[in-house]
Amino acid sequence: MSPDQPRRLGNRGPSKGFTKEARLVSIMEKFEKGVIGVRGSAVADREGLPIANGFREPFDLVAVAAMATLTAQSGKTVFDHLRFTAPRDIIIEGDDAKVVVYKLGNGEASFIALVKPETNIGLLKLEMAAASKKIEEELGLGPHTGPTIEESFLISPGGLLVAHGSRTSARTMDRDIVAGMFSAVQDFVKDTFRETGGGALEEMDLAHLRVRILRGQWTMLAIVATGAMSTAYVSAAREALKEFEATNEKSLPSWDGDAASLKGVDLLLDEVLHQPA
Questions:
Q1: Rounded Cα–Cα distance for residues 132 and 28 (Å)
Q2: CB proximity list for 22: less than 8 A, separation 6 or greater
Q3: Which CATH class for the 146-273 domain?
Q4: Which residue numbers in the chain have pLDDT < 70?
């Protein structure tokens, strides 16, 4: 399994939560919740074509994206003529609304926000700058700054390793023992805190790594990363596990230990392993 070229196996397509558009919309939704007065946002390419839509109102997304991009390009032309550095953002003000266009990368794309006139523009620009870094990373326009997923383990309820995915093939660990350890720690925590109403273990530190454990109906997914995983990533991984179990709902309840009898195992592990955390 090449870490650079995830395979697409089985009958199941990529999980909805792991699509690039879904991740971009998730970033925009978080941004919109952080500033009062934001009516919607979008990402467009350098030609003004929409990449992702975060507008909640029925605006003509194509027209908004095209006009905002054209405005940003016009602003750059003016600054170039004056021999000034091109602006990172441009604000279009009207009586009913303001449109803020934030440049992504070296102008390869734009982050567009439509806000109410009374919106705190200082806070808005700070939040747009923070969201833009994440959007640039998703689009490959900026350096990766978040944690990296190193390993993924799909484990049966009894602690048997169903399958394993790794970012590198140079691992010397006994994967079956590691899978059994994750399962044993889970059982220990459940048994220890049963009387106090404590739930199952969800996350733990392992040396310099962070392990996130997701439980499905018939399987468990252990994800090892170099740091804390985002809520959006964990939600997408949980959805991917749910889709995998739905695809194999006839085989998993009486699974005989043969990983080849399950559909989409490699796809699940590849998706979990190669998405930004």
A1: 9
A2: 16, 236
A3: alpha beta
A4: 1-17, 144-145, 169-174, 180, 184-201
Taking the C-alpha atoms of residue 183 and residue 213, their distance in angstroms, rounded to an integer, is 9
CB contact burial 256-269 (16+ within 10 A = b; e otherwise): eeeeeebbbbbbbb
- Give 27-63 pLDDT, tens digit per residue: 999 999 999 999 999 999 989 999 999 887 888 888 8
Sign of CA dihedral 38, 39, 45, 47: negative
Q: Distance from first CA to last CA of the chain, Å, rounded?
A: 20
* CATH match for 35-138 among 1.10.540.10, 3.30.360.10, 3.30.450.30, 3.40.50.720: 3.30.450.30
SS3 228: coil
What are the Cα distances from residue 195, in Å, to 186, 192, 198, 203?
A: 16, 8, 8, 20
- CATH code 3.30.450.70 region(s) in the chain: 146-273
Contact between 273 and 165 (Cβ < 8 Å): yes
Is the pTM for the entire model greater than 0.85?
Answer: no
**Please, where in the chain does CATH 3.30.450.30 lie?**
35-138
pLDDT, tens digit, 9 for 90 and up, residues 177-217 = 777 677 766 666 566 556 555 556 677 877 788 888 898 99
* DSSP character at residue 241: H
